[in-house]
Amino acid sequence: MNPRFIGYFAWYYGFFVIKRGPSYLVASLSLPLTLLFMVGILSHGNLISFALIGGLVSIIASNCINGAADAAFFRLQIKIQDLFVATKITPGDYMMGLIMSYLVFSIPGIVLYAILGLYWHVFTIGSVLPIILILIAVTISISNIAFIIAGSMKHIRNVWGITAVLSIVMTVLPPVFYPYTFLPKIALYVLSASPVTPAAVLLQGYVGLEQLNYTTNLMVLILFAETVILTILGRQFIKWRE
Amino acid sequence: MIEITDLHKKYSRNFVALKGLNLLLDNRVSTIIGRNGAGKTTLLRILSTQLYPTKGTAIIEGYDIIKETRKVRSIISSIPQEAQPIGILSPMEQIKLYLIARGFTAQQAGKEARFALDELDMDEFRNSPSDTLSGGMKRKMFVAMALASNSDVIFLDEPTTGLDPLSRMEVWSAIKRLKSKIILTTHYMDEAQELSDFVAVMDQGDVISRGTIKEILKAFDGKMRAERIDGETYDIKVGNIAVKYIDKSKVDEFLRMGYDIKQVNLNDVFLTRGMNLES
Ligand SMILES: Nc1ncnc2c1ncn2[C@@H]1O[C@H](COP(=O)(O)OP(=O)(O)OP(=O)(O)O)[C@@H](O)[C@H]1O
Ligand SMILES: [Mg+2]
């Protein structure tokens, strides 16, 4: 572990992207905010809390999955990965640096949603710790999906298409903007292939929008298992030395 | 010292990029030259632990690139041929980040980065986002990065491609000042001549000639290169340029025939590959 490298990388590549290219930030917030608005209107305000708590996951997950394009660009196009291979950092440091940079990049969105959530009284004191843990699991697991995509690309051109599709499938389709109980059981389990689904189910449970029950317990297991497995796979796919 | 033994690299079932290369690099500055696709980058990437060889290995300052990867990585710096900067970061930030990855403290990293940029006359652009730099400036930033690292061994894959003459001289001067061992590749023969204590000539995945420039050019002792478009006498034709290697005594004769006469240099090693010059 090289915390100094991870810290600098996250700061430079997370914060400076916001500072020097603010349009990316606006782009990353536009979809969840639009959906929040639509869900609010269509449900006459009834489902606002769901769209709020879900938007939080959605923002982080889409920033992380879009990281696939960054990681592929770094490896294939500008050879930054090659540059860092021959230094003292490990692939774990590099991956951690990227993950933290996605998190830093997500901070404005997180803050915005936290404010909205407080305004609509979505959060409870007891839910803060579980929310943080769930969001960390989402960050790690989805970033590793990004590394798997980036590492299996032979050419940069496909990465934009793949991440665009995955971004929708993983961050809009799962029950992030509506109660998971609306979903048929079978659909819920299919969608659980994306860590965003168990995360959304858990969040709805922990903030008290839905019951904590057998399904939520199962989702804890699924989210934990997916995070571990994806991290192991991500490390295999990052292609440090080719 | 870098000791390369029986190094093979197979990119696919029917394409071999390195064919059992053996080479000893033990000078301050060693240069690898060779035509496009000769395998220079492949060799440098293997030595910098970015790529696994298919067979064979190399020992860098006593450490095996396969078995002692971590040790090797702690003493080398390597600038990829196609490296491009992260556009939103300034040269200062990128070099700092690189040096931090090399184990420098943030303060040391900042100091060394600044010094290296200054040495290559890039002080003015220190804090500009790299997006706004010219192509040559971007390249110079990477050279500055390697020089600032002060690593024991530095690999530079075409460090001066795209640099203006003055910038190239700045890079040369910086390379000469360093104490590190430097392995570089170049397509500029004057650069090889200016910097190298040792030259290895690569062709089709193997080293075809090695030594000091004088040793490599030994086959051309006493010869000059005569060339003329559509000339009738030649050893070799490049496009429609006839090239003939002549004894110095025949210079006048060829001048009368309309040939240009040139000093032999490293380019001629490629031109005459597989030829017999005795005549
Ligand atoms: N990743 C790769 N996959 C397949 N073939 C490759 C790969 N990288 C290089 N090659 C092939 O290996 C050969 C050697 O390439 P290399 O890049 O080492 O040449 P080079 O001497 O550095 O050339 P240049 O002077 O153009 O930089 C070339 O024929 C190239 O097409
Ligand atoms: Mg090359």
Structural class of chain A: mainly alpha
* Proportion in helices of chain B: 25-40%
Number-wise, the strands of chain B total: 14
Q: How much β-strand is present in the residues of chain B?
A: 25-35%
- Greatest chain-chain contact: A-B, 27 and 33 residues
Tell me the fraction of residues in β-strands of chain A, as a range.
Answer: under 5%
The ligands found in this model are:
adenosine-5'-triphosphate, magnesium ion
How much helical structure, as a percent, in the residues of chain A?
A: over 70%
Order of helices and strands of chain B: EEEHEEHEHHHEHEHEEHEEEHEH
Spans of chain B of 5+ residues with little confidence (pLDDT < 50)? none
Provide key terms for this protein.
heterodimer; A: 242 residues; mainly alpha; 10 helices; B: 279 residues; alpha/beta; Rossmann fold; 2 domains; six-stranded mixed sheet; four-stranded antiparallel sheet; 32% helix; binds adenosine-5'-triphosphate; binds magnesium ion
Strand and helix layout:
The complex is a heterodimer of chains A (242) and B (279).
Chain A: H1 3-20, H2 22-42, H3 48-77, H4 80-85, H5 91-119, H6 128-152, H7 157-171, H8 185-191, H9 196-206, H10 214-237
Chain B: E1 2-12, E2 15-25, E3 29-34, H1 40-47, E4 55-60, E5 63-64, H2 69-75, E6 76-79, H3 91-101, H4 106-119, H5 135-149, E7 153-157, H6 165-177, E8 181-185, H7 189-195, E9 198-203, E10 206-211, H8 213-216, E11 223-229, E12 236-238, E13 241-247, H9 251-256, E14 260-262, H10 267-271
Parallel strand pairs in B: 3-8, 3-9, 6-7, 7-8
Antiparallel strand pairs in B: 1-2, 1-4, 4-5, 9-10, 11-13, 11-14, 12-13
The complex binds adenosine-5'-triphosphate (ATP) and magnesium ion.
Adenosine-5'-triphosphate binds at residues 11, 15, 17, 34, 36-42, 81 of chain B.
